[in-house]
Amino acid sequence: MADTDDALRRFRASMILNFDVWHDGIPYDLDALMALPEAERSAIGRELAAKGELDWRDVQALERIGTPEALARIAAAAGAQADHGGASALRAAASHGWPREREDRFIALLEAARPMETSFDTLFDVAEAHPTPRVRAKLLELATGGAPETRYAFGAFLLYLHGQAEDWYGLDTEHRPHLLGLSDSGAARAGAEAWLRNMIASPIHTREDAR
Prior knowledge:
This protein has helices at residues 2-14, 19-24, 30-34, 38-49, 56-65, 68-80, 84-94, 100-112, 120-129, 133-145, 148-161, 176-181, 186-201, 207-210. By secondary structure, the protein is mainly alpha-helical.
């Protein structure tokens, strides 16, 4: 009983969101959560599932709890939320399958992505795991004709996906001027788009090959 009380105390403490927790991206204490008896975990799952919107920490906890209700709540958030919590929920739901409607939802999240509002890392995790022709086509569309403030990110990810970069952050000094050109206009933008299309048309390797 003492161990259960301590685990519950630690988990409840980890649910308190302050600046440091938010800034450093600290998750719930999942070790404490999994140390709880099943009945206690299920009760916490019902509590989290009752929230109006899930954040990424809620998604992690519900995924670990793993009850049908918890997984259904994740699937609901994946279909309804366009924020970081929604992207995290879609990533979790995608591990259980990639039906057409889930791909449709993912493409909608890509279209809605905006700096400071979206976890591009989460979206790119999903895209790397499910680089279907439709996903690739949407990534290229957004890199060349999407919101100007996101073209760089999508272009950098496409380079990574096609083995032309070691990461998807676009920090390579050779690539950076071209990626910046994607958000320009006129001849600079046309040149950058042509460069990107050429780079991904001749991949060094695809991420599927690398795996």
